[in-house]
Amino acid sequence: MKVFKTFGDGIDSLKLVEVETPKAEANEILVKIKAVSLNYRDLLVINGTANWKTKEARIPVSDGAGEVVEVGEAVTKLKPGDRVAGIFLPKWLDGDLTVEKYEMPLGGAAADGVLAEYVVFDENAVVKIPQNLSLEEAATLPVAAITAWHAIARRSRVQAGETVLIQGTGGVSLFALQFVKAFGGKPFVISSSDEKLERVKTLGAAATVNYKTFPDWEKKILELTGGKGVDHVIEVVGGENLNRSLEAVKLGGTISFIGLIAGLSAPINTYQFVLKNVTIHGIETGSREMFKDMNRFIEKHEIKPAIDKICAFDEIKEALRYLESGNHFGKIVVKM
Amino acid sequence: MKAYEIQEFGVENLALVEREAPQPKETEVLIKIHATSLNYRDLMMVKGEYNPKLKLPLVPFSDGAGEVVAVGGVVTKWNVGDRVIPIFMQGWLEGDVDIQKARTALGGDLDGCLREYAAFDENGLVKIPDHLSYEEAATLPCAALTAYHALFVSGCLKPDDSVLVIGTGGVSIFALQMASVYGCRTFVISSSDEKLQRAKELGGDELINYREREDWDRVILDLTEKRGVDTVVEVGGAGTLQKSMNAVRMGGHIAIIGALSGGKGELSPVTILMKSIKLHGIFVGSRQMFEQMNQMLCQRTQLKPVIDRVFEFSEVKDALKYMESASHFGKIVVKVGQE
Known about the structure:
By secondary structure, chain A is an alpha/beta fold. Chain A has helices at residues 40-46, 135-138, 141-155, 171-182, 194-202, 217-224, 241-248, 271-275, 288-300, 316-325, and strands at 2-5, 15-18, 28-37, 63-71, 83-86, 118-122, 126-128, 163-167, 186-191, 207-210, 230-235, 249-257, 266-269, 279-282, 307-312, 331-335.
């Protein structure tokens, strides 16, 4: 079978190689991957940034969906033909995250990912995909959607009528927008592009701010909320942007922190944590249990992931560069 | 009556004045204040560092305890002779804090407790636990309630949890005591071996001198089989937060209380995400939390506030300078009224 491999030495060095198709043992299933989706983390792995740098050749990309083609003799939950998606942290089935459950995230330095024609999973390390979604759509769920779900449904616990500030129009942000809307909340979206802001309105944004036009966007957010601030922030930028989010959130509000894009270290106004009585939740994807809850919600509310572009298997490098450019709106999918 | 006022910023400028004693309105209670306690916020307030635009003159100090000497016509909750504590935010009775509630803090938005008499709305008071003196009770409104909020409301401490407290100031000592009587494994870091010894007497299990071990975050990981502690009561601010994030377990909880070592600093916020940490900024607490805490204190009477030193009313500037020196262990109390 064909797979792509990386040494963490950049997009151009990604290599297409032929390897032996794996076999499903005892508790395992063999999945024919039909589609994968890209996340910012995949770029960190492929570019070998900081701790994401791999020591050996790895199959990158964490998110994939496909069809079960073979099951081990001890498998009881799945059968050939089932449509499944892999879970990002194969050992995080339920409960709180622990060091033990945090091992071997897919498509990182420690474990292979899904940019391959076939992948073997433990039968516990996949979920059945929502019935209303295609395999391309389902491939967008494992990291971005579950992260948004964990933030909105489990940590910030957004209620009807509450205001939620969502930053940008990447994968997590658009899922967050759709979930907030389905919970009856009011999503406020900021972006650098008026065109993207027009598009988020059609997805249900209650208000929008262009942060290029208004660099002090947090002041606009305060204006829009009568000086009070938003109930919740989905902080996907990170770095010094957290200081602005701390200004934009209401007293006693929550910030779900997912931000990697603005760098790993920044001067942060920690005193504002206290004065604002704010709760900051670090969100690291989610468990299989959350994934199942989310899938039921997606079916019930008939949510369709926003896909920017579907590329072919041999266009993977272009797809990664497109992600790097930050020009996308929603998820980038690669068909296998 | 006698009162201290901030008329100009600076410890030396604190002015002892004669004011007319207030009369309680219909829903108010008049308190004769017997004792106040100092918090770092009070020092910042006096120096003009907390809010340079503070409306002056202002009676400083949020924390006090006293007895009811008169009640307004429609007051139902209190009688003359009751021993009471005014709550830090007069308007935060229950539920979540909001901007209106937050703008009712004593010794900041409203006149504080460094005066012989003060009138408060009858809802803005709690009863002093029977086993505490006025001086002990005066230590509760800010420091003890903040520690309680951090451990039991923001966090939900379980008896076998591990808790790290930073330093040995008022909040840290209360948190140490509360966690310890609750059965938790407690970790204390301080720059002084002598203070660590005293923390041990209060139930501190693991004591680390951070002058000797600048890598105290690693020491804590080693002491917890690399797992990290469940909860950190973080009073240091930007200077210690990164190490606290390193020392907390995955999915753990950091209650952020203060910014003693600076309010702004270089952080690696990505740690918050990678470790799924919950950071919660704690700004004191509501009356309801105060009442819950007092119940806990009453049930566990072995928990007595640690008072470092009691100053006379006339020595208030010395008390502030003593706080500034940071050599105290536990709370600094100032008596109110004639010696």
